[in-house]
Specification:
The chain is mostly beta strands and 227 residues long. It has one helix and eleven strands, in the order αβββββββββββ. It has one helix at 2-19; strands at 22-35, 46-47, 51-62, 67-84, 87-89, 92-114, 119-141, 152-155, 165-176, 181-190, 208-221. Strands 1-3-4-6-7-9-10-11 form an eight-stranded antiparallel barrel. The longest helix is centred in the N-terminal third of the chain and has 18 residues, at 2-19. It starts with a helix and ends in a 6-residue tail after the last strand.
Length: 227
């Protein structure tokens, strides 16, 4: 079933190039985290903020009237970030951060409903192929603690330690600044667990991706529809 879906998305993206009325690139900020009943187990001294990263994609938009369609292909950073509270004493200070850095190649199909010439409401499906995954432990240490703690980085085995695919929905809105530039804000909610076996060494358990993506886009090929 997954292979059929991947094939359908790729064919749709390829055909969109021929029929697109608009073509361009977009990029911006990704604020990623995870959700699920088996998410990060935090104690009172830890926090779980959104993990900053970036997204970059090419897009094709086609259709006329208030309903249009966009196909995107590009790169996004997702994952999770956990921060310890700083500990300080006469010997110095130490603050640790733990992160999973997940880099995906994404293909998204999005429907755009234009409520005005400058604003569209967006919703669609996306499939993501995991390119690499790294677990990091970073220590910000001073004084005597700096001699005892070293940063640690470990790569995960895709398909064994962590799922190679993610499937989710994107919802949000776009604002068209002029005929060339637009800004959009989308929320991504993943449906596939990060753990392919529910029992991996990487131990993502039953956790799922989510992310807030804010981007600026520029169109090279465009049809005039803004007053």
């Amino acid at each position: 079933m997954r292979k059929i879906f991947v094939f359908f998305i790729i064919v749709l993206f390829t055909n969109s190039i021929s029929f697109a009325q608009e073509f361009g690139f977009k990029g911006g900020l990704s604020l990623a985290n995870t959700y699920g009943e088996d998410g990060p187990d935090l104690d009172d001294e830890q926090s779980n903020p959104y993990k900053p990263g970036f997204n970059l994609a090419g897009f094709f938009r086609f259709g006329e009237g208030p309903f249009r369609y966009t196909v995107e292909a590009g790169f996004s950073q997702k994952g999770v970030l956990i921060k310890d509270s700083e500990i300080s004493d006469n010997l110095g200070s130490i603050k640790a951060e733990y992160s999973w850095n997940l880099n995906y190649f994404d293909i998204n199909t999005i429907g755009n409903y234009f409520i005005s010439n400058r604003v569209s409401l967006d919703a669609g499906l996306g499939i993501s192929f995991l390119m690499n995954a790294t677990a990091k432990q970073v220590f910000n240490a001073t004084g005597s603690y700096a001699d005892f703690y070293e940063d640690v980085s470990n790569s995960a085995n895709i398909g064994e330690d962590i799922s190679a695919l993610d499937l989710g929905v994107k919802v949000g809105a776009s604002f068209y600044i002029n005929e060339k530039f637009h800004a959009d804000a989308h929320y991504y909610l993943g449906f596939l667990t990060l753990d392919p076996s529910d029992n991996s060494d990487f131990d993502p358990d039953k956790m799922f991706n989510n992310a807030i993506m804010i981007s600026i886009g520029y169109k090279f090929l465009t049809t005039s529809f803004i007053d």
